[in-house]
## 1
Amino acid sequence: MTQPHDDPVLSNSRREAIAIALAWIAATASTCGLSYWLGYQRPGQSLGPDDLRPIFGIPLWFFVGVLGPWLACTLWTWWFVGFRMAEDDLGTDHTAELASDIREEGGHDHG
């Protein structure tokens, strides 16, 4: 029997889950950090109408702090799913057998 740590599906799933969690943390940190840095008043930084600096009519803090990380996440997801995720063999599909078993058991009273 295969040990859990020898199972390639489990190891690939763990590796991929860690990569996705790290990407999520990075995206959240960059979104919050950039939005705060560019869009919120802080001690020593007073923001006014001149600080909006719109790009395509969108305030700079939103364009860089939200849309930028979204675009980066979209590109990273495309790359990760297309080139890094493993396509593991999950075994035989038993759907037909299970459906047959369910139909056979449907008329019996189990209780």
Note: The CA atoms of residues 6 and 71 lie 36 Å apart.
## 2
Amino acid sequence: GVGDRILMLENAFYSVISPEGCASILWHDSKKAQAAAAALKGTARDLLALKVIDEVVPEPLGGAQRDPARAAADLKAALVRAFDGLHGLEPGELVRRRYAKFRAMGQWREGAAA
């Protein structure tokens, strides 16, 4: 998850632990995976709102597995947009932007994410 642009398919879940594993640790009950998944905030929409990712890549109806060719084409288009947005930037500017982006993650103030 370290890069100048982070893209995520809309139905993906990004976390260091599965919801079942998290529920087992927190509540000693893997059946509380749904509550753990909500608490982890690992969905593409959650991570976009938290500014952990830069773009949610839409998937075909029913998920990428329903139409892999369309999903691949949509992902390619998103990657091209992301790379085009970086084209021409000096290496120092890329490093400065990346540093600022990742330094801002995880900031918190009472009542809301910063």
Note: The longest helix spans residues 68-86.
## 3
Amino acid sequence: MNESSTYITQICQIEAGNLFRNNELLFSAEDKTTSLSSFLKSIYQKKQIDYPKFYKMDDLSKLAFIGAAYLLENQVFEQPNHDIALVLSNANGSLDTDQKHVKTIENPDAYYPSPAIFVYTLANICLAEISIYHQLQSENAFFISEKFEATNMLDYTHYLLQSGKAKKVINGWVDCLDENYKLAFYLVEKQGKIPHTIENINQLMNQYGQFNH
């Protein structure tokens, strides 16, 4: 399977208080200084998603959850689904949540680690939240690297599609640290209009962004 045989069919990007899908601005925060958590909560409420656990998630999982919700909004698929794989990456892992966890245990006189925070001290938990909501029972992986490794992600996606392990793959970057954040998700299929190439992936990742990509 070569590059020209797979295609990018949907794109979702979130950064700097804006949410785009296929380059169309769908949501923009009125106050660009609002916290990431508040910004994502506003999107969640506007979209009227029914998943109460959203409010308990860490910011990384909320960001990934919202990105996947918009990416898959117009997709029709069976549930549970075994054909949509998830392959995501970032530079900071769960460091944003790790730091919050450390604050709950650093004071020996007020030592009380929060289980609600601790459960999110793995970056791949965001894959679980997406999978649970959309009932995805498929291949998934989360990679940590300083920048988005387009070649590796492209090769792995081709393998999943060529081997029959998936019919669609959600690829992308989702990262947040100290209120800096960026999400760029794209859906890859065997039919479409935008070729799934290194050039197009890098263009997508570099669009809008200044934060670790």
Note: The mean pLDDT is 91.
